[in-house]
Amino acid sequence: MPDDVIWFYEQNGSHVGPVPARVVKQKCREGAIAATTLCWQPAFGSTWRPVRSTEFAADLPKVAQPPPLPEPPPARPAAPVSAPQRPAGVDIVKASPNAWGIALAPLAVTIFAALIARSAPKSGAVLDAASFGITIHFCRADKKQLLEAGYYNAPSAWWSLFSPVYLWQRGTVVGERLHFWVLMGSIVAAIIISAAMDAE
After folding, report:
1. Do 130 and 50 reside in the same domain of the chain?
2. Helix, strand, coil shares, percent, the chain, to 5
3. Using an 8 Å Cβ cutoff, are 154 and 173 in contact?
4. Average per-residue pLDDT in the chain?
5. What is residue 82's three-state secondary structure?
């Protein structure tokens, strides 16, 4: 490269020069002129060129190139559009031990009363109160379970004072009234057992 060729280079929006080629070469090695810095010499005509496209490209500092980027992970296929799903926990809600406790409480308390009737004949009021308390407990626990499973329209806990209405409304919410009908059967069975005990 002849040193008598005059060069100009761009710096902060202005041109610097004329300078000999050895000055441009030295500034490239020092890093004062970057690969993208524009330069010009009379042979370029009216076009300024970046230093990287001139004979000074070999004088630019060598920059380590990073390895190629890893391949992006494959896109997940879109989930198929389906009918609205029920909230999570539907199975545990339908098989809820709390709902079964509400449904079977009248029968369980009546059977227990039949077993202890001979030893504690005056225990009817206590057993009725126990049955009522057990039912309220199961209703409140069931309402909590429904809310945790995402059924935010669960029946009011006040309906625990009248369990058939609570279970009917619960059945409306979860789409199944099995516990209501078991409660009705439990009440009928309790009445039959109580009548048989009174007949003795």
Report:
1. no
2. 55, 10, 35
3. yes
4. 77
5. coil
pLDDT for the residue 92: 59
Question: Strands, E, within the chain: which ranges?
Answer: 6-11, 14-20, 38-40, 49-50
Closest CA to 107 of 1, 200, 12, 194: 194
Residue 21 included in any domain:
yes
Q: Is residue 180 over pLDDT 60? A: yes
pTM, rounded to two decimals: 0.49
For residues 23 and 6, what is the distance between their CA atoms, to the nearest angstrom?
Answer: 10
Give tens-digit pLDDT for 55-88. 888 888 776 667 777 887 787 776 555 444 455 5
Residue 154 is given by DSSP the state P
Please give the C-alpha separations between residue 8 and each of 3, 16, 38, 48, 85, in angstroms, as whole numbers: 13, 5, 9, 9, 72
**Does the residue 156 lie in any domain?**
yes
Together in a domain, 55 and 103: no
Q: Locate tokens 């030893």: which residue?
A: 119
48 and 94 both lie in a single domain: no
Residues 45 and 94 in one domain: no
Strand order in the sheet with 49-50: 14-20, 6-11, 38-40, 49-50
- Residue 33 belongs to domain with CATH number: 3.30.1490
Q: State the residue range of the domain holding 160.
A: 90-199
Which positions ≥6 away from 88 have C-beta within 8 Å?
A: 149, 150
Is 157 within a domain? yes
Report the number of distinct structural domains present in the chain: 2
